[in-house]
Specification:
alpha+beta, Purple Acid Phosphatase, chain A, domain 2, 2 domains, nine-stranded mixed sheet, six-stranded mixed sheet, 9 helices
């Protein structure tokens, strides 16, 4: 992007003054109910894709036929498949419900920024996706706490309008809440988007279902939404990391053990040791329960995790932290240990995808010094990493049935500000501690 254009866009940035929006919201919308669609038992359903390591994509789908092969045929021309890969399957049961055959197949190596055409299981409809670019710019769509309401559909429609490369979802996907066929309807609802761009997700409280008294409680989530945890050295699908186009993204688990003796904490230290800020100058973190939240809803729920992990992530120079859980939108200044800090992270709460529980409309007053903008409306975010030093964040309210940009800010990376180099001794000390 030319310097003049960059300066012009930066001049349009919203002023950094604390704001609580007074937008008058329309009434809530009902949960969507889908008509019964009896597909052939072998036809792929609920198709979605995710990143699976460098130049690889994981394709996931479900069939009702137990004998359906877990193969994906793919190529760069419609109807012409030059490559094929075979994957693995899983399934699960809960009371009178039995899932279909859940297929996970990793394809690649793939070219960057390229459209591929593919079909699953050797038949059925053809899908297509575009791989992310290998370098800046890259755009992430962000929306958490989706559910399956009319507002969810509006959010998805608006995300579909933006030119994004990867979708980030900080927890609470389907709101199935033990009703297992709601996982299936959610998969069908998001398929048009999730089959065309990678969806990278982490778990929320509504994914924890404790099916058949299983200890971890994430049986259906783990079976359906497999993420690249093994590729990132994690031993749990509840936390992992991935890299794409100059961005190292860490997906943490708010509902996995996170104390200093936990597997997650030790994995996080090991993952941060591998981060090369010359290769990935941007460091982004996602989790479900926000650490900086001035809404009355879910106050203090992230305090213990923050007390354990914030010093580590601050020392690592995390640029942006994205969370859900609170059904509203909020953006902070750069903050650390409860106070403004030029080397701290910007925290964004975006649990406003459209869930059935409605909006969290009560905020604490006075507005904290670290809180810049907050509004209880449904919507989605767009995070564009323009280059190694500048990113543009915008939040788009969808309560008008059209995406209205209601908040925006240019963000300068901590690498370019010197914070990362300044804190490197502190980081090494923490990472190398037993």
């Amino acid at each position: 992007m030319e310097l003049k254009l960059l300066l012009l866009l930066m001049s349009l940035t919203v002023a950094a003054t604390a704001t609580t929006a007074e937008y008058v919201r329309p009434p809530p919308r009902k949960t969507l109910h889908f008509p019964w669609d009896r597909k052939p038992s072998s036809q792929p359903q609920q198709v979605h894709i995710s990143l699976a390591g460098d130049k690889h994509i994981r394709v996931t789908w479900i069939t009702n036929a137990k004998s359906s092969p877990s193969i994906v045929e793919y190529g760069t021309s419609p109807g012409k498949y030059s490559s094929m890969a075979e994957g693995e399957t899983t399934s699960y049961s809960y009371l009178f419900y039995s899932s279909g055959k859940i297929h996970h197949t990793v394809i690649g190596p793939l070219e960057h920024d390229t459209v591929y055409f593919y079909r699953c299981g050797g038949g059925g409809p053809e899908f297509q996706f575009k791989t992310p670019p290998s370098q800046f710019p890259i755009t992430f769509a962000v929306a958490g706490d989706l559910g399956q309401t009319g507002w969810t559909k509006s959010t998805l429609d608006h995300i579909d309008l933006c030119k994004y490369d990867v979708h980030l979802l900080p927890g609470d996907l389907s709101y199935a809440d033990y009703i297992q066929n709601r996982w299936d309807t959610f998969g069908e609802l998001v398929q048009p988007l999730a089959s065309a761009r990678p969806w990278m997700v982490t778990e929320g409280n509504h994914e924890k279902e404790n099916i058949l008294l299983l200890e971890d409680g994430f049986e259906s989530y783990n079976a359906r939404w497999k993420m690249p945890f093994e590729e990132s050295g994690s031993n749990s699908n509840l936390y992992y990391s991935f890299e794409v186009a100059g961005v190292h993204t860490i997906m943490l688990g708010s509902y996995a053990y996170y104390d200093e003796y936990s597997d997650q904490y030790n994995w996080l230290k090991a993952d941060l040791l591998k981060v090369d800020r010359k290769r990935t100058p941007w460091l982004v973190v996602l989790f479900h329960v926000p650490w900086y939240n001035s809404n009355e809803a879910h106050q203090g729920e992230g305090d213990e995790m923050m007390a354990t992990m914030e010093p580590l992530l601050h020392a690592a120079g995390v640029d942006i932290m994205l969370a859900g859980h609170v059904h509203a939108y909020e953006r902070t200044k750069r903050v650390y240990n409860g106070k403004s800090d030029p080397c701290g992270a910007i925290h964004i709460t975006i649990g406003d995808g459209g869930n059935k529980e409605g909006l969290a409309q009560r905020y604490k007053n006075p507005q904290p010094e670290w809180s810049i903008f907050r509004e209880a409306s449904f919507g989605h975010g767009e995070l564009k990493m323009v280059n190694s030093t500048h990113a543009f964040w915008s939040w788009h309210r969808n309560d008008d049935d059209e995406p209205v940009r209601s908040d925006q800010v240019w963000i300068t990376s901590l690498v370019s500000s010197g914070c990362v180099a300044e804190k490197r001794p502190e980081l090494r000390k923490i990472l190398m501690a037993p």
